Amino acid sequence: VGTPSLFSYRSAHHTRPTAPALLFGSAKPNMEEPKWQPWVKWEELAKEGDLEAQHRLALSIWEGWSTPYPDPERSIELWRKGADAGHVKSMFKLWRSERILPAFMVEGDRKASIKEIASKLEAEIEGKGKKADAETVQFLSEILLDKSSGEYDAVRGRKLRKQARQLYTATLEKRKGQDAEICYHLGMLYSESECVTHGDFDGNNELSFQFLKMGAEMGCPPALFRVSESYVTGTGVSTNLALGYTWAVKAAKTGFYLGYDRLAYHYYTGMGVQKNYLKVFKLLKLLRALGAEAFGNGNSLTYVLAIISYNGGYGVIKNFKFALRHLALSTSVMPQLVAIEKASGESNNDLKNPFGMMGEIFFMGGHGVKRSVKEAVTSWQEGEKQEARMGEMGDGHRVGRYIAAIECADVLYSTPEEQQNARREGIASMKKYKSLSDFADFAEAYLYARDLHSQRESRDAIINRLLKWKDSHHADQFAVYLADRELKDLFLKQDPVSFYYGLGVERDFKKAEEAFLARADSDDPFILFKLGCLYYVGGYGLEKNGKAAVKWFKKGARKGDRRCQFGLNMCYVNGVGCTALPTQQGLQQMVQLIQEGGPTGFGDTAELGLPHETVQEKADLAFVRGFVQVWGFVRVRPDLVPERMGTAVEVLTETIEGPGATDPFWHFLAVTELQRLGQYVELEEGENKELFDHVVETILKLEKEEPMKTEQQQKERKALKSEGEEKGSGEKEEAEQKGAEEGEEQGEKEGEVEASKREDEKKEEEEGGEKENA
């Protein structure tokens, strides 16, 4: 179970009913009351035979409000019990459950047909007249708006949905707005996406948000989650990622599983808050312990855990062994997620073929995994066989196979003839580098570096090729590894790109400066741009120097490099190293810059000298056009911010998630604008400590063994534990005997020593598990 879709339908045909503030005056929820947990009362009443309370309890369990995670089986048992007693709502939910989760049903469950259920609901509504129960009316409307029910009546169904809203609102008025569950139901009934799903075009997202927020302020878990989602997507309210994060924290603190999911998504993507993979790791481990398989917008939970361990950073140490194990686990759920993606028609860039990354890990080795070219090739071959089920393989994996054939044919093949053919085919495939799209420039540089190209190129020219390619692929660990192999063979003394991004070394701008300056004579625009970035941002051992940034950006700009022109303009508009231009004049400079780029702006690969046949824009260029437009919108027309905030925040967040995830220059620019809009939260040390202490405690309770242990380690631990218990038992008997012979005091002392020893062993095990988790 993952987060519902982040996209919502906005209808052009909606009315604007009275806002909650006007209905209930200044009445506000009493936040001093105990935590909102109505299911505690429902459980007590259900035990006394109250069928309505039993139904409400089943609903809370189905949704995961009152349990750590949704428990459909238990809900169905309760509804089955209610249906047997003639409770019509339970009958309806049992019918609905059978359609959603038929595996949980047993033969004979549907004692009443849908026609009978509709008749019973109708009779109950008619019998109560104006005092009809809002939920009963809502359930009947769902039957009538379901084309497959056999009772489809769109006109009557829409009328009943409207009646349900009116009844819920009247009840809420009587309770002076003090009913979180009704607020949540009204929020969902007014949601435009929910309305369209039921063929109802009277939705109103603004009103929906107001009701959801009322419920959220009273502590209703699903309302808290929906409010967070609304702030992120700008549904019914202006987009505000920082507030989205704040409400996600509140949802998680209620113990609601989707609250954990939403909060993990904020930390994972950096939406409105600093990225923190350690917090993501803990939250996903908890979700997995609770039984979840998907995370966020339809990603495999185990695959995301593998990515975090594979990349490292943001508080997590690289662990290839852990990544490999979770990639293997993800293969069982990935086909279902790929099928869902295909059915939806929406592309999910996080759904990657797990066999591709397995091959990368085996090819590189390290971080707990022994290098094995043979295992790498086997993984890539398996991935290609299962592309239809697991997702497509990347160009990098093809390049990896070609390199393996060229360099390790003797390991992969037994006979000299097979080895010679493999090398020949590998070289021939690499020479078709233009077909390799994203890896085309590397393939060409590889051929030059290995003297396999038909032409020759100088060592410095090859190094510049590889540095430029490594820079544009710095977020791809496998790409960086392949470039570093060649740079090492070319005896590059200082690698400026590694020092700039912190690839395999501590980020050090001073060393990056020295290495870039050593190559600045080549006048390569890429090097000039990076020098400008170093001085613009500063830090990491290098003092910020605006004048130097202007100097290097200007030098590249004169050569026609668009990135340098952009950097120079950022200096002008922000007054870095020069007098700031008036805002309007600065905007004109920026607009001229993107207009000169032609219809594709900064995506013009030929003009910008990007890699061969590049389909996707590169890191330093991909967001420039959108960034410039957002910059102008935020700086020049702040009065339009509420209307276009969603677009602005989306572009800036994509900048942080994309190039800004690893490039300090882009991160600095985007965060500056988001902070200007109040859309970014800097994490303080120990933030949400109580929440994450609870998360870790829950994980340890749910998992029988520490989650990071291998099977062998678990077996060894069990053996040691068993041996320790036997030994402890013997020592205890001996101590008791000795106590009997030598006195009670000595026996007690031995017992205390043994208890202390056991306590130390237990503490050592727990610390070991926590260390591996971290």
Concise account of the structure shown:
This protein is an all-alpha fold. 65% of the residues lie in helices and 1% in strands.
Describe the structure.
- With 774 residues, the chain is an all-alpha fold.
- 65% of the residues lie in helices and 1% in strands.
- It has a two-stranded antiparallel sheet with strand order 1-2.
- A hairpin with a 3-residue loop joins strand 1 and strand 2 (299-300).
Low-confidence stretches: 1-34, 104-111, 597-622, 705-721, 723-755, 764-774
Which strand order spans the largest sheet, edge to edge or round the barrel? 1-2
Kindly state the mean pLDDT as a whole number? Answer: 77
3D shape = globular
Query: How many separate helices?
Result: 40
Helix content: 55-70%
| Structural class designation | mainly alpha
Gap between N and C termini: 25 Å
